[in-house]
Specification:
single chain; 2 helices; about 60 residues
Length: about 60
């Protein structure tokens, strides 16, 4: 019998979707951040969310 294929189960599945509309400039800025940092769009956005949350939690 062949091993089970597919994505492994996650302890923290990403089941929610967030959709935004952005200007061409906003999208270009996000893509530039991704190129410079080597991170994905998701990682860059989450880093921004975490920074804003930390600043407002004080």
């Amino acid at each position: 019998m062949s091993p089970r294929t597919g994505r492994p189960k996650s302890d923290n599945p990403k089941s929610e979707q967030i959709k935004i509309r952005a200007t061409k400039k906003d999208k270009a800025l996000l893509e530039a951040c991704c190129e410079v940092t080597g991170k994905t769009q998701y990682e860059v956005v989450m880093e921004g969310i975490n920074k804003v949350y930390a600043e407002n939690k004080k």
